[in-house]
Amino acid sequence: MISKKTKYALMALIYLAREYDRGPVLIADLAERENIPKKFLELILLALKNNGILQSKKGKGGGYYLGRAAKDISIGQVIRVLDGPLAPVPCVSETAYASCQECRDEATCGIRLVMKEVRDAMAAILDGTTLSDLIERVEREVKKREGIIDYTI
Amino acid sequence: MISKKTKYALMALIYLAREYDRGPVLIADLAERENIPKKFLELILLALKNNGILQSKKGKGGGYYLGRAAKDISIGQVIRVLDGPLAPVPCVSETAYASCQECRDEATCGIRLVMKEVRDAMAAILDGTTLSDLIERVEREVKKREGIIDYTI
DNA sequence: TTTTAGTCGATTAAATCGATAGACTAAATT
DNA sequence: AATTTAGTCTATCGATTTAATCGACTAAAA
Question: Quick check: A100 contacting B, CB < 8 Å?
């Protein structure tokens, strides 16, 4: 399960991607709009900023905004910043490898073999999906549903 | 990341699958062989038993043994017993659906769309891999490495 | 120089994780 | 029937993590 931190982060990023043209967004506004505890959101945005995903401006007219294009921010990157590596076991992580203490022989560990497959499958999806993909897919879904409603009215 | 509980469970199950022909295995033996804290292992084996994955016999000559054939025990089943649902968010779980509190409209939630993909990919691998698959693959891997060693000696 | 708004460190409460203790129950043997 | 063997169950523990909050601080505009 992903943490609330990551969920809030994704919600905030989607919002910021949508509002990008209108300049920096205040933490307070974001918190209210997306129903995220403000102080908690501060930590999340700061972490995203420290990892280059967001940028910020202080003082009047300040706030947070995307650090790079929405099409260059993958869901995988966001999860790694807030929840750590995607891998189900440390010994198959590409970004944060560590050996498992319980493991006798990593080279022939059956658990490792399956978990490597799982990691790769997850990474393919999460690193292959960007913020803009997400927004696009949601828009398609909304339109599809509006279509259905049109018929039923 | 999967928990130690799940890792220990998989290690124990692989051991029990290999020892199946020799009858019930004592918790104490299993604990020593696989370097798992005995009291902790008790809880794990009990949980597996209560979910039909293991069976047990009390008294002399007793111990734990597989509740069904190794080819009918999937890794996914084991993980669900000890770590809960595979799904990264409750709203995409097939075995333990629950709505996400943060979510406004589940039908058009972008996070949900990706996480559904992730869950399905994970489930395909984990429910499609059984204990016997695991053992078979380890054996293949061991043979491959022995082959390499033969050449290098 | 005052207002605005992000930054940072410390703290908290609750939940989860990994592990252990001890009493209990069932089955087999003597 | 008594004893030994071995799994069952409940409770508890400390450490870590998660979700959240407080307050003081700093930088940028007006």
Answer: yes
Structure tokens at A47: 């972490």
Task: Give yes or no for a contact between A15 and A30, defined as CB atoms under 8 angstroms apart.
Answer: yes
What is the average per-residue pLDDT within A114-140?
A: 98
Domain residue spans in chain B? Answer: 4-66, 86-129
Query: How far apart, in whole angstroms, are the C-alpha atoms of residue A109 and residue A151?
Result: 56
Residue B118 sits at the chain A interface (C-beta within 8 Å): yes
Interface probe, candidates B41, B102, B137, chain A, greatest A C-beta count within 10 A: B102
| B77-108 b/e (C-beta count within 10 Å ≥ 16 → b) | bbbbbbbebbbbbbbbbeeeeeebebbeeeeb
Query: B109 in contact with A at a CB cutoff of 8 Å?
Result: yes
B36-77 confidence digits (pLDDT tens): 999 999 999 999 999 999 999 999 999 999 999 999 999 999
pLDDT beyond 80 at A153: no
Nucleotide nearest A36, CA–C1', reads D20
Interchain contact, B110 vs A142, CB within 8 Å? no
CATH topology of domain A4-66: Arc Repressor Mutant, subunit A (1.10.10)
Which nt is closest to the CA of B62, judged by C1'?
A: D6
Residue A74: strand pairing partners = A130
pTM for the predicted model, two decimal places: 0.93
- State residue A144's pLDDT score: 87
Which positions in strand C are less than 7 Å from the protein's CB atoms?
Answer: 3-8, 17-22, 25-29
Predicted confidence (pLDDT) per residue in A70-105, tens digit: 999 999 999 999 999 999 999 999 999 999 988 889
